[in-house]
Amino acid sequence: MANLQNKMINELLFERIEAGDFPSAVYLVGQGKDVVFADAVGNAVVKPERIAATLDTIYDLASLTKVLATTLLAAKLIDGGRLELDAKVADILPEAARSAYGETTILQLATHTSGLPAWRPLYLLAEGREDVLSVILNTPPSAERDVVYSDLNFILLSFIIEKLTGQRIDWAAGERIFEPLGLKNTFYCPPNAVRRRTAASELGNQFERETCEKEGYLAADGASEKADRWLRNELIWGEVHDGNAYFMDGVAGHAGLFSTAAGVFVLAQQFLPETTKLLRPKTCELFSRNFTAGKAEDRSFGFQLASTKDSTAGGRISPQSFGHLGFTGTSLWIDPVKQAIFILLTNRTHDHGLPLVNINSVRRRFHDLAAAGLERNF
Question: Nearest Cα to 313, choosing from 298, 295, 292, 291?
Fold first, then answer.
């Protein structure tokens, strides 16, 4: 049965590769601790040479970093009694006391209801990683506290984690998550030795450069010079795609993590009470609880819920399922009712000019096929 499902999913992905949506895809579908079906299709690198994708290909996970590193670390701190959902930013970061975000809670950051805007080009607004916190704290908030998905929420949350652990977030994640789980191919800032195993990304930061121009950031004095320094023109391959994460030495709370599908699978198991090795089972309830009912999205602690209108979960997994996407073309959905995990990693930004393809319809179809396969398999 698994072979049939592989065939159906592969046909979908090959069709979308041929259509130019992305050059490669690796998927893994599991239930409990078991991998039910997985495969790799297409080329992880098309230019300057062709390198086929395999199950061991390492992908830039982009915003999956928010949940697989930052959310998981925050949950561990909650488990240990060092962090609470209603703790305020200023309680942990005294420099936030006079900021508009001093009274913002950990839960508001984790559910994107802090009032922070969706994005800012920190590489144009800050002088270095050490200045990023100040720039975020001085960013004017939105008057309405609906759900506004924002990288800045998780960068701020990562600074809180760094303060509580006394470690930069990559070191904190390595010591508290990756090493205990035995993950050898999950890291920030991939070493040069694994470059040829890594899926390539965009030819320069053309998308971000265009966004900066459209939003008027390049009109400020000195902005063009900064943009030329931090927005790359060469092929991004083996280093983080996101411009703000690149500016922050490749290490940030919203992006920067690299891993294989197998690594993502092990990390995803930590959010389910039946398979977690890092959290108390009761803590896992945070990930399927709707904290934003009646708002623009249904959000749990760190994740979007499948009950959100037009989510990429598809129509066959439980409404309590929780998931996250990454700009580079990655996605993860977890069904706590069926203990099912759905991972789809693509590099949609590689070998593709602007505009990039929105692959949400592919994600939905993948989840429908995969969920149907699990139903037939068990």
Answer: 298
